[in-house]
Amino acid sequence: MGFERDFESIRDSTRSEEARERIVNDRQTSSAAAKLSKLPAASERGLSTVVLALATVSFFIFSTLLYIRPYIWAYSTSPYKTIHDSHHHAARMLLKDEFIGEDFFSRWKWETFDDPTHGRTNYVDQEIAKKNNLSYASDTKFVMRADSFSTVPQDARGRDSVRISSYDAYADSVIVLDLAHMPEGCGTWPAFWTLSHKGPWPNGGEIDIVEGVNLNQANLASLHTTPSCTMPQNRDQTGFSTSTNCDSSVNYNQGCGASFAKPASYGNPFNAQGGGWFVMARTPEDGIRIWFWSRNDPNVPPEICDSDSQDGPSDLTPSPSWGRPEASFPLGDNCDYDSHFDAHSMVFDLTFCGDWAGSAYPNSGCGGNCVDFVNNNNEAFSEAYWEINSLRVYTPA
User: Fold this and answer.
1) Which of 20, 134, 186, 188 has the smallest C-beta neighbourhood within 10 Å, fewest atoms?
2) Does the keyword Plastid apply (predicted)?
3) pTM
């Protein structure tokens, strides 16, 4: 019996030990399971922290790039250190002068000197232009044209045409031309441009706003200056840089130019669309910029197309809503504004052949000889005329 009690005692003790071991094991298993169950939550919290950190860093990098983008662009496109946002310095401009209809007879000078570009042209005065119906005006229109009725004798100075310039001159300004029709056709060389009122040319500079020859369909905007004025090849514009040295004494006075990319900016396509608007803005800070919108362009700014009414806007400021200009000429170390550009008069002219239209004529698709064509084909010049709705000039407030 004592042995049996001892045996029972030992067995009970063994069972107690086994029970304690099972309890300990169960607790350890439960603790491990609990820890494992917490792992996904911890992982999710860690992942969220990483995502937030990445988003913060990305936002910082993006903001920094936005801030330094103009500086990166300037360094990548030009060796010069003058840097500016094309609209940052945009000044408010107030309407200074407007020219509609008869204003071109009373407030512009009619020039009759020999064509300085050696064209086959006879510039006539206002009296002859009116008498021969080469120029006329209404309350809303002004027209000046080439003679399309007569052949030109060999000993004549050239085909009758018109050249006029404004009596007033403007420095910093925005010029808005609402043009219904420009001269077109073989042998023609029309231009709307500005040049130094003080001169003599090329002192004070020249800005060609509308220009082309023969059967061209893309407008060319250019600068012509004294030496030490150049442009970067890549500029903040939608047009294409055609040349970069503005010095009139090199490259046969090619100047620094930009050919427009928008369709219908010149010649027959321009006229077929009913014309359009050219805008030139010039300031020391933003340089010289030229925009163009065809008559049916849905993106023409309201303040520009509204100017075709008799009462144009009283103030005008170049805006980012205008989009990038067709031609941009940044000024600074590459071309000092004050020493190359002063107050300019505006000029409309129409010449024939000459230095550019004549030299380009053989490859223009027109055929024959330029001077012979101008002399003997009077009917070919029926579309060689300017029709101006309005011209407005805004100067700093």
Assistant:
1) 20
2) no
3) 0.78
